[in-house]
Amino acid sequence: MTSPLTTVYKCADGTEFPVEWNEPEQRDYRWSWDTNHWPTPLKPFYVAAWLLSEVSARSNSDSGTKFLAAFEEYLKYYGLRTSRWECALPTFREQPEAPLGFIKHAIMNDVPAPLEVQ
Fold it and tell me: Whole-structure pTM over 0.85, yes or no?
């Protein structure tokens, strides 16, 4: 017998696989596999080893430092939630008011942060 918050799936070999949901609407959620970044599933140990590795630390140590120093208040105001920034099209969360060309110019020329970006 299953509760309203439990769904029982069947594996290819016929083994039952019960899933318990926190909320009833979660049963309708769908999962998709993004093969662009990680084409094969990762084991938890591999992920932990990568995050603690020297390569991971070096790849993230200096990225975006100039930008954050120049536009820290701007980023906080518009909701950038990471400590890194890429010079690419903004995501829906950031929605910057400043044109991307202005931001790239400021990074390249080490322009001091404006008091308020409008």
Answer: no
